[in-house]
Design brief:
The chain is built from 20 helices and two strands. With 473 residues, the chain is mainly alpha-helical. The relative contact order is 0.19.
Length: 473
Amino acid sequence: MTTERDELLDQSSGPRSELLESASIEWIPLHKRKGNAWSITPFFFVANWSFFTIALGFTGPSLGLSFGWTIVAGVAGMAFGTFFMAFHATQGPHMGLPQIIQSRAQFGFYGAAIAVVMAVACYLGFGVVYTVLTTSGLQSMFGWSPVLVGIVINLGAAVLAVLGHDALHRASRIIFAVSLPLFAIFTVMIIVGAVHEPRASGVGAVGFSAVAFIAQFAVSAAYNIALAPIVSDYTRYLPPTTKPGLLIASVYTGTGLSAIWLLGIGAWLAASFGAQDALTSLARAGDSVIQGFGLLLAVVSVATLVVCLGSFSYSVALQVMTAADMFGFRGGKRTRLWIGLGAVTIWAAIAIPFGDDVVGVAGGALSLMLFLLVPWTAVNLTDYFLVRKGDYSVADILDKNGVYGRWSARGLVAYGAGFASMIPFAVLPFYVGPVAALIGDIDISFLVGLVVASACYYFWPNRSVGAVGIGTK
């Protein structure tokens, strides 16, 4: 049995960077931990630094919301959603495990299957949406075959996913360094009035609508809440001495700033020019000032999206392996490789013939993801910060006979109650709840779900918890 003391002694060998990551869902030993709170900021910045975020800015104007109100709703939604997502980051260095496997502490060894199903569904959905955005955008710009584009970008994503954690962080740092100055220049061009779109429709939104405002708020909040089930996947290699406050600030800054920035650009393109395709409108707007600059912005945006697809594939592999571990199958890097390849194959096969309704696809997918994710993040954070206060046993999380049990009624009932409470308040692509209909199709289900799931978990009749420190292995 390896103890925390043994790992601390072994840390003298120093952290080693691997070309091909050897770990899967197991605890990350201390001698492999490296970096600091701010070293991961580029990764989380790039996680939202794609033209998908620009497309989110189309939501408000497409429903009749003005540019100003779209910015207010978008910033408020991002600030709200990022709050929950960023707090998950502290669990990575503290526990040294991927995000979803930690759910065993709230739902039980087998009960955590509900978190696995939720997460896999969400990230396969993200893979579909990102592939649709890229194939439709490049087809519109250059007439390129959606099939060929879909295959190429997902092969690139698969390579990054196979290489693993360090490769994804390195790619993110490169994208961050290259793209940041380009978008800074483009933003200055917008501010000084140098950007125009000669082929735009010129139809912009000029008013306020409560439904549109809440819709923009909800998709913005969902955007970063949707990252919650993978946050620890990319912070678990940080040393356990990483200060939680700095780590939260780092993740909040990265995901929040990039999302608000590009959402603002999207809202401006939609409200000013009636833009409907994120990649095409970005390229044309950039080229309207300097010929070729828009193409450069588009190329960088596509590269960013490939890194994001790689991250989704990598995390889906960890989630599926968490499920396989419930049945006694503990795979290694080869298993992670094949599952990651399978993930990109599935979403590419769905996405390539899907179509090009960018705003509808993005908004609908995020509404569904928010519906699935809210009760989980409420239960997970309530347990971590309010109930157990970070006191967990990694050994028991990995053991079906551990102190967390095989099934936890507390977590499962709280998730179910949160999910059920959202239904009357929900506005989904195929369903409008009765309460939502009474208040003008305004979706406040995520607020209800957060409160109900958190309260149900926290005030559970048997509030005793039995866990030892995370040093036990």
